[in-house]
Design brief:
Layout lengths: L3 E5 L5 E5 H4 L3 H8 L6 E3 L5 H19 L5 H11 L4 H14 L2 H15 L4 H8 L7 H10 L6
Parallel strand pairs: 1-3
Antiparallel strand pairs: 1-2
Helix pairs in contact: 3-5, 5-6
Length: 152
């Protein structure tokens, strides 16, 4: 088997990903065990921009894991810079990390999203993420009664 895995994305782009980088994904690792000699994996639900971001993260962390003397602050600096991306891409990366089973990436992206939500009211969150409020006034009143501690 080759040291390069060809990853075909939903928009038809094929990325050459070093095998050791691709193995950061538990999903890809399992897929390669059952691939019967093929070095190509197709992902119908992950577009090329998202996959490139996932590969960028995996390449960095794979390289760091193989080096000695890397400071934790350098890793955190990379991670903090990495998650500064448009919301639509961030949500796509979350979905991809979940599907690909890359726990550290999933945790990092979810923490970023959580930090943007902290201290905001439901109305502010809906406005920030363009979420339509489908609750009736009665639903809202029930929620405020049942979870009054949220509105203190």
């Amino acid at each position: 088997m080759s040291q390069i895995i060809k990853v075909k994305t939903s928009d038809g782009e094929t990325l050459d990903v070093p095998k050791n980088v691709a193995m950061e994904s538990a999903h890809i690792k399992r897929a390669m065990e059952f691939a019967s000699g093929s070095d190509e994996i197709k992902f119908d639900d992950i577009d090329s921009n998202t996959m490139k971001k996932v590969v960028e993260y995996c390449e960095y962390h794979n390289r760091v894991n193989q080096q000695e003397g890397i400071q934790e602050r350098d890793i955190k600096q990379f991670d903090n810079a990495f998650v500064n991306m448009p919301n639509n891409l961030l949500f796509s990366v979350v979905t991809a990390a979940h599907y690909l089973e890359i726990k550290a990436l999933l945790d990092l992206c979810c923490a970023k999203i959580a930090s943007t939500l902290k201290g905001k009211s439901p109305e502010e969150i809906r406005a920030q993420y363009n979420i339509e409020n489908d609750l009736t006034p009665d639903d809202i009143a029930d929620i405020k009664t049942e979870a009054s501690w949220l509105y203190q």
